[in-house]
Amino acid sequence: MEIGYTTTVGERDCTELYKVAGLPGGVCQCPHYGYIFTGTIRATYPNTDIPDEVATAGEAYFFPAGHILIYEETTEALELNPAFALQQTMDAIERVASRIAR
Q: 45 pLDDT exceeds 80?
């Protein structure tokens, strides 16, 4: 497992990021376990019957693989993620970021 502290400033919708990163189905392939200190995270599950899930300050959460994360406001969260799945996702995002930076 990998432990991380995630912070965002303002709203952030990861829909386009996952698409341009070439993630299968345009969704995150890594499940996330976490706790929100401040803010709100919405997880959507495109092309499924799974309803959106929302976690807010003071709540623990589990978002299975196949989601899109939407940070609805400035958010601080502690996350626990399977290291291999997270690394594959981050590698795809970093490849896109390095192409854009050129």
A: yes
